[in-house]
Amino acid sequence: MPELPDLVVIRERLIPELENHTIESIEILEPLVVRNLNGIEIENNYKGAPFKNLERVGPFLHFEFGDKHIVIHCMLVGKFSLNPQYKKKDLCIRFQFDGLTLNYIDDMKMGKVYFGDSESLKQIPKFNDQGVNLLSEDFTEKEFLSLIGKTRQQTRVFLMDQTKLSALGNAYADEVLFEAQIHPKTPCNKLSQEDKSRLYESIKKVLSESIDYIRRKNAPLEVKVRDHVKVRNRKNEPCPRCGTTIRRANVLGYDSFFCPKCQVMAGGQFLDWGKMS
């Protein structure tokens, strides 16, 4: 799925493309992804709406067209393309602007595209319940330490709690924990003050470096850039820090990738990953 660094770059690239453009038509090719918050006829209601702004709200992209809004949550595999030749059979929605085409593609049909006015956005699950923006000035070490407090959540679970931190996904939660040298299943209340400070700095470092890398990569809009990650989806590969084989563990139903030598769980663990083949 597009995660925070991806969405930052997508937003940066779409704004100059959409500026000074007006919607000419909206073609809904896969109704399964559509959420009509007002119950109005979408295609006609948005015709002639001028693009005003695009903001990222956690994992959501919020497109503003005056008093009309479109919010897209890409979920697992949703993506965008500006290619007007994209085959309709592969699309969910085609937004046609004057002189510009924006496609929304989702092979698994798990993403959600919400249409409504500013008042109806309250109906979008989790949209108004995001925690501190990890890229904002509000994300201070003091705020982070206050949020992590004495919670007993596993560290990876805490990192992915969007009501607290907005917002880390699976890939970057793994990368942050690897950078901080913390096992994903370590309970937060077992972390030392030094661990917590290192975790805070790791969030800022991993996000900043990843955004910069994706910007410089300048891949097509629909391409998910992941060749810079160090542990995510790298099971059985050598750790880039120590050479130990990277492992995969289940953390509350989600795959997590880590180095068993660099990321030893505080207080020990049931499985000795370092001795397993």
TrEMBL record:
<dbReference type="InterPro" id="IPR010663">
    <property type="entry name" value="Znf_FPG/IleRS"/>
</dbReference>
<dbReference type="InterPro" id="IPR035937">
    <property type="entry name" value="FPG_N"/>
</dbReference>
<protein>
    <submittedName>
        <fullName>DNA-formamidopyrimidine glycosylase</fullName>
    </submittedName>
</protein>
<keyword id="KW-0456">Lyase</keyword>
<dbReference type="InterPro" id="IPR015886">
    <property type="entry name" value="H2TH_FPG"/>
</dbReference>
<feature type="domain" description="FPG-type">
    <location>
        <begin position="230"/>
        <end position="264"/>
    </location>
</feature>
<keyword id="KW-0511">Multifunctional enzyme</keyword>
<keyword id="KW-0234">DNA repair</keyword>
<dbReference type="GO" id="GO:0016829">
    <property type="term" value="F:lyase activity"/>
</dbReference>
<comment type="similarity">
    <text>Belongs to the FPG family.</text>
</comment>
<dbReference type="GO" id="GO:0003906">
    <property type="term" value="F:DNA-(apurinic or apyrimidinic site) endonuclease activity"/>
</dbReference>
<keyword id="KW-0862">Zinc</keyword>
<dbReference type="GO" id="GO:0003684">
    <property type="term" value="F:damaged DNA binding"/>
</dbReference>
<dbReference type="InterPro" id="IPR012319">
    <property type="entry name" value="FPG_cat"/>
</dbReference>
<dbReference type="Pfam" id="PF01149">
    <property type="entry name" value="Fapy_DNA_glyco"/>
</dbReference>
<dbReference type="Pfam" id="PF06827">
    <property type="entry name" value="zf-FPG_IleRS"/>
</dbReference>
<keyword id="KW-0227">DNA damage</keyword>
<dbReference type="InterPro" id="IPR000214">
    <property type="entry name" value="Znf_DNA_glyclase/AP_lyase"/>
</dbReference>
<keyword id="KW-0378">Hydrolase</keyword>
<feature type="domain" description="Formamidopyrimidine-DNA glycosylase catalytic">
    <location>
        <begin position="2"/>
        <end position="111"/>
    </location>
</feature>
<keyword id="KW-0863">Zinc-finger</keyword>
<keyword id="KW-0238">DNA-binding</keyword>
<keyword id="KW-0479">Metal-binding</keyword>
<keyword id="KW-0326">Glycosidase</keyword>
<dbReference type="GO" id="GO:0006284">
    <property type="term" value="P:base-excision repair"/>
</dbReference>
<dbReference type="GO" id="GO:0008270">
    <property type="term" value="F:zinc ion binding"/>
</dbReference>
<dbReference type="InterPro" id="IPR010979">
    <property type="entry name" value="Ribosomal_uS13-like_H2TH"/>
</dbReference>
<dbReference type="Pfam" id="PF06831">
    <property type="entry name" value="H2TH"/>
</dbReference>
<dbReference type="GO" id="GO:0034039">
    <property type="term" value="F:8-oxo-7,8-dihydroguanine DNA N-glycosylase activity"/>
</dbReference>
